[in-house]
Amino acid sequence: MAYFSPLQYRCSQVMNAVGSVVLEGLRQEHLMETAASVGTFLLEELLKLQHKHEYIGGCDPV
Prior knowledge:
Elements: H1 13-28, H2 31-52
C-alpha cells in the first residue's frame, strides 16, 4: 500500500484564485437558490406522478 503525504495535496495560489472566482459566480448568479427551487419543483411533479402510477416509488424528499 502506497503512502500519500498530505503535502501532495497543497493548492497553488492559482487554484485558490480559480476556486474563489467560481464560488463568487455561484453567489452572483444565485445558482444554488435556483437549483433548490428547480429541485423542489421536480420533486412536487414527481410526487404527483407517484399518486397516479403505482410503479413509481421512493420519491420522499431527503
